[in-house]
Design a protein that fits this description.
433 residues; mainly alpha; Serine Threonine Protein Phosphatase 5, Tetratricopeptide repeat; 2 domains; 23 helices; 71% helix
Amino acid sequence: MHRRWLRPVLVITAAAAALLGAGVLLVPRHADKPAPASAPASSELDRYVTRTTDHLTKVPGDWQGWAQLGMAQVQLARITADPSHYPPAETALRRSLTVQPHGNAAALTGLGALAAARHNFHEAFRYAHSAVATDAFSADAYGVLTDACVELGRYPEATAAVQRMLDLRPDTGSFGRASYVFELSGNRNRATELMQRALDVAGSPADATFALTHLGELAFNEGDLDKAAGYFARGLARTPGQPALLADRAKVSAARGDYASALDDLRAATAVLPTVDHLVTLSDTLTAAGRPGEAATIDTLIRATTRLPGATGATTDIDLVLFYADRGEPGTAVAKARALFAARPSVSVETAYAWALHAAGRDREALTHADRGLRLGTKDARAHYQRAQIRRALGDRRGARADLSEALALNPYFSLRNAPRARTELASLEGPA
């Protein structure tokens, strides 16, 4: 399960370049590398940044202009996955506050969005809270507050914040956030309905692609491969080469046993946006396709992320924690999960922490976190599979059997690596507990 709006990612850049230089192929054979789907949107934002910067050299006292410039830089970082936009964003936003220190909800909102982009959700919460106190009619401020509350595990506050955002501005952003809140509570039907609303009101091609991507992911998480493939196809028709859509389409292909198509899509996706989740999916697909040597090379690339500047506990991706736990490196998994949980005590992080503790043989601690990770009623097949393994390690065959059954009922394709194991283990646990 992925975030519906603010999907934290850790992008591999320098490490990828090093391995590419060593001959690792991350693009599809006999295919041209697709241009990033964010190019039109980023080009438009780049032009806006240039115009606004020129304007501010002439009118340096325009505090609203500084705030808008900072938000544009945050948006550029989000759609290009390029953190080099963060420092100029912060400079512009703080300049706005210097010029107008009182009643400046726009700058406070921007600083909250920037903190969230850097995965500092405690700081994002403080800025967003100040922003809504300053301007109770700022939908953007309530959006940042929703994101921060979700990541900090403050779910009643997140629900109240997103409801206020919907009341103020029922657009793709507010419907998308509301969809995720309902998904967390296990209400898949309502989550899908709200994401469809996000698509219906989409005001730009990027918004429509966002909604189609997540409608497809919701369908995939229910095990409906045909419906998921349909949404992904519609999204790719709008924005050919969009990396998230390519990676999602690859999951459908792999679930159907078409590893060649899946690998082509994953190479194309990782060539444009080598995020941890995309690369882990590529590694798992290579393994399923009987190419363990190539999978090991991708794993080496992923491990290199720990040596990149900025790969701190606060910015570690959940997928990286799971990667280390699955690859037999429990010490690293636990250390990263502990730091991540301190920064972002959400249910998604809690389930990852549980899996890391299980890998380290600390199953009683793991079960506490696994139970808390599912406390909202989230219908997460992976989380149920992981709790099954923890329960089995503790000798609870009945509980393990129940969780394995639930995982496969929710989504029989939840993991190339673990779904086959779940079926085998469930068969072995049938009979008296």
